[in-house]
Design brief:
2 domains; 5% strand; 6 helices; 2 strands
Length: 114
């Protein structure tokens, strides 16, 4: 069965994780750093203000690759298009093959509009 998802974690590690400000917490960044994954997550405004209030003891701001973060919206728009199909958004199909067919059909329709 080709393309089947197996048990366990993936065999490869991503180069970077692109996320929104909700994931800008220390434990998330620390976990990604421990696995050697670059975090492309903007700093929360309140965290930046707290860091600045501490002065030099606050440390440096976390790095942000702005060009990579700008491309994040492509994935968000793809999910928004998919959610317009009520059957996909609510997952009414009982069989995985039927759900997969709906995903492929919606992708084909979106692709033909482009």
């Amino acid at each position: 069965m080709s393309g089947a998802v197996g048990r366990g974690r993936p065999r490869t590690t991503p180069n970077a994780v692109i996320a929104d400000r909700a994931y800008a917490t220390g434990p998330v960044r620390e976990h990604l750093r421990s696995r050697g994954i670059k975090a492309v997550i903007p700093e929360k405004k309140d965290s930046a203000a707290a860091r600045l209030r501490k002065g030099s003891a606050g440390g440096r701001p976390p790095a942000l690759d702005a060009e990579k973060y700008k491309r994040r919206n492509v994935v968000e728009r793809g999910f928004a298009l998919t959610k317009q199909w009520c059957g996909l958004a609510t997952r009414y199909d009982k069989l995985a093959i039927t759900y997969r067919a709906a995903v492929v059909l919606s992708a084909c329709i979106v692709w033909t509009k482009v």
